[in-house]
Write a structure and sequence with these properties.
Strand order of the largest sheet: 5-21-12-4-11-9-10
CATH architecture of one domain: 3-Layer(aba) Sandwich
CATH class of one domain: Alpha Beta
Protein name: Nucleotide pyrophosphatase
Radius of gyration: 28 Å
Oligomer: single chain
Number of strands: 22
Helix content: 25-40%
GO molecular function: nucleoside triphosphate diphosphatase activity; ribonucleoside triphosphate phosphatase activity
Largest sheet: 7 strands, mixed
Distance between the termini: 44 Å
Organism: Suillus fuscotomentosus
Number of helices: 13
Shape: globular
C-alpha cells in the first residue's frame, strides 16, 4: 500500500344451479318428500364445501418445519422460499415520481418502496452492483471504479473487457450467490455485472453472460423458465440485470424523451414479471425486489476542467495513470511529491472540487483503505467534467453519474413485492411510522444492506453468511418472525 493517499472530493357455481330436481311426488307424503330434499341438499352442500377446501387448502399450506428447506404450495407444485432480484441500471429514485411508471407504483403500493436507496461511492455501475452482491463498501470489495489501475497486478481493470471483468482475482468479498450455493441453494444469474465465478471457484448453477441488445421479452422468458423448473432443479435465488434505462440516460440525459420511453418499457417489464408470478399463484412464496445501482444527472453543458494543465504546472510532475472517470485518480512518477500536487489542485479549486488528506475524507465515502485507490483522487462537483487536452470533450455523455453519493440525482430505487414486503409494510404501519396507503413507507437506506436482507429471506443462518458492511439488525423491524 502507498504510505499516504489523498482524496479530492447510485368457480364455485351458484348453489341454486346444482340443486337436484325437487318436483313434488304426489304418491309420497309431504314430510317424507321434504326429508329427502333436505338430505340430498345436505349431501351436495357437504361435497361443495369439501371440494372447495381441498382446492384452496394447499395454496396457503406450508410445511410446519422451519428453515430454508420448508416447502410451500401454489396449489399445483411445491416451492421453497425464492428471491428474485432485478437491477434496472440508472433508475434514478425520483423517476418514480414522473407519473410514467404506474405498474411499479402499483407494485409498491401492494408491497413496499423505500424513499430511495443510497449507492456507494463512487456512484458507478460495477462498484455498486458488487456492493449489492456482497454488502461491502468499495474500499472493501476492491472494485473502486469501472476502470482503474492496480499497482500490485500492474494491470488495468476494464469493465468491458472479458480478460479483466471475468477474472475473479479482481473481485473481493463473497457475493450472495456464492453464499447461497455454499449452503446448497440453487442460484441463477442473468447478466448481473460481475464475474462468472469467484476466486474460490464457486459459480451460479445457471448463468447467462452479458449480451448487448438482449430484449426485455427474452429476459422475462428466461426468468420464468427458471421459475417453472422442477423443484429439484429450480433456483431459489434469481438475479437479473437490465441496462436500457442507463443507456438512454447517458445518450440523451435524464430529462429526455428517450429516458421516459425507456421508463415505460421497464415499467411494463416489471408488470409482466409480477403478473406472471401472480398467475402462478406465487406471490405468497416469491419475494421480488427491484433495485438500481445509481441515478443520473444532466451533463449536456458541463464546465470543463483540464486536469493535465493544472497538474502540469508543477515542474517535473508526471502523471502515470488515470482511474475512475468521471472522477480521476492520479498516480505520479516515482519521487513525485503527491502532497504538493494536492495543494496545487486545491489552489485551483474555486468551488469546483474540494480537497483533503486521507484521514479527514468524509467517512460516508468509505473510500480510503484500499491500495487500488490512487494517491490523489479528484472528484468533480455536479456540473463539472474532468478531462485533459488529449481527450478533450470527445465521448462525454449527455447524462452521467459517478458523483457524490449523497446528491439526490445519484439516488437509486428499492421496490419489493411478496411476503417480505407485506410484512414490512404491516410492521411499519403498526409502529405508527407510515400509512398503509403511502407509496413508500421505508426511509432511505444504503445499498450495502441488501445482502443481509436476501440472506434472511432465504432463511440462511448468521453462521452461514459472509461478514459485510451492513448494519447489524437493520432488517429486524421490517422482517416479521415467520419470514
Amino acid at each position: 500500500m502507498p504510505d499516504k493517499r489523498h482524496v479530492l472530493l447510485l368457480n364455485v357455481d351458484d348453489i341454486d344451479a346444482i340443486q337436484p330436481d325437487v318436483k313434488e311426488q304426489p304418491t309420497r307424503p309431504a314430510h317424507s318428500h321434504k326429508r329427502k330434499r333436505f338430505v340430498e341438499f345436505s349431501v351436495l352442500l357437504s361435497l361443495i364445501i369439501t371440494t372447495t377446501i381441498l382446492e384452496f387448502w394447499p395454496r396457503t399450506r406450508h410445511d410446519t418445519s422451519t428453515g430454508r428447506d420448508s416447502l410451500y404450495s401454489n396449489g399445483t407444485h411445491e416451492f421453497k422460499k425464492t428471491v428474485l432480484m432485478i437491477s434496472i441500471d440508472g433508475f434514478r429514485a425520483d423517476y418514480l415520481d414522473r407519473g410514467l411508471t404506474p405498474h411499479l407504483l402499483d407494485i409498491s403500493r401492494e408491497g413496499v418502496r423505500a424513499k430511495y436507496m443510497q449507492p456507494v461511492f463512487p456512484t458507478l455501475t460495477f462498484p455498486n452492483h458488487w456492493s449489492l452482491m456482497t454488502g461491502l463498501y468499495t474500499e472493501s470489495h476492491g472494485i473502486i471504479a469501472n476502470n482503474f489501475w492496480d499497482p500490485v497486478f500492474r494491470d488495468t481493470f476494464h469493465f468491458d473487457r472479458v480478460e479483466s471483468a471475468q477474472n475473479p482475482s479482481w473481485w473481493l468479498g463473497e457475493p450472495m450467490w456464492e453464499t447461497a450455493e455454499r449452503a446448497g441453494i440453487i442460484t441463477a444469474n442473468l447478466m448481473w455485472p460481475g464475474p462468472w465465478s469467484t476466486s474460490s471457484g464457486v459459480n451460479s448453477t445457471y448463468f447467462l453472460p452479458w449480451e448487448d441488445n438482449y430484449a426485455l421479452e427474452k429476459k422475462l422468458s428466461n426468468l420464468l423458465e427458471w421459475i417453472d423448473l422442477p423443484l429439484e432443479e429450480r433456483p431459489q435465488l434469481i438475479l437479473g440485470y437490465e441496462p436500457s434505462l442507463d443507456h438512454a440516460g447517458h445518450t440523451t440525459g435524464p430529462m429526455s424523451k428517450a429516458v421516459n420511453m425507456s421508463l415505460a418499457a421497464v415499467d411494463l417489464f416489471a408488470r409482466n414479471l409480477t403478473q406472471a408470478l401472480g398467475e402462478r399463484n406465487l406471490t405468497h412464496i416469491v419475494d421480488i425486489i427491484f433495485v438500481s445501482d445509481h441515478g443520473m444527472t444532466d451533463m449536456s453543458h458541463p464546465t470543463w476542467i483540464y486536469v493535465d494543465e493544472i497538474v502540469g504546472e508543477l515542474d517535473g510532475l508526471l502523471t502515470l495513470h488515470y482511474s475512475g472517470w468521471p472522477s480521476m485518480g492520479l498516480r505520479f512518477a516515482p519521487g513525485t511529491n503527491a502532497t504538493e500536487a494536492l495543494e496545487h489542485l486545491n489552489t485551483f479549486n474555486y468551488g469546483k472540487m474540494s480537497a483533503c488528506t486521507v484521514e479527514p475524507v468524509p467517512e460516508r465515502y468509505h473510500f480510503s483503505h484500499n491500495y487500488r485507490i490512487a494517491p490523489v483522487w479528484i472528484v468533480p462537483r455536479i456540473g463539472y467534467a474532468l478531462t485533459d487536452r488529449l481527450g478533450g470533450k470527445d465521448g462525454v455523455p449527455t447524462g452521467n453519474h459517478g458523483y457524490d453519493n449523497e446528491d439526490p440525482s445519484m439516488r437509486a430505487i428499492f421496490v419489493a413485492h411478496g411476503p417480505f414486503s407485506r410484512g414490512a409494510r404491516a410492521s411499519v404501519v403498526a409502529r405508527g411510522e407510515g400509512d398503509a396507503t403511502e407509496e413508500y413507507v421505508m426511509p432511505g437506506f444504503q445499498n450495502v444492506e441488501i445482502y443481509n436482507l436476501v440472506m434472511r429471506l432465504l432463511s440462511l443462518d448468521a453462521t452461514d453468511i459472509a461478514t459485510t458492511n451492513g448494519t447489524a439488525g437493520f432488517w429486524d423491524k421490517f422482517v416479521l418472525p415467520d419470514v
